[in-house]
Amino acid sequence: MTETQISIQNLNVTYNGNHALKNISVEIPKKQITAIIGPSGCGKSTMLKCMNRLIDMTDNVTFSGKIIIDNEDVFDKKTDIINIRKKLGLLAQKPTPLPMSIYENVAFGPRIHGVKKKLVLDETVQKCLAITGLWEEVKDRLNSPASQLSIGQQQRLCLARGLAVEPEIILCDEPTSALDPVSSQHIEQQLLKLRKDYTIVIVTHNIHQAMRLADYVIHLYLGELVEHGPANDVFENPKEERTRAYINGTMFSDLKIDKEVDLKGNICPYNFVLAKQALHELSKGKVLKLVVDDPLAVTEVPRGMEADGHKVMSVKQINKTDWEVVIQKKE
Ligand SMILES: Nc1ncnc2c1ncn2[C@@H]1O[C@H](COP(=O)(O)OP(=O)(O)O)[C@@H](O)[C@H]1O
Ligand SMILES: [Mg+2]
Question: CB within 6 Å of ligand 1 — which residues?
Answer without folding.
Answer: 15-16, 18, 20, 38, 40-46, 58
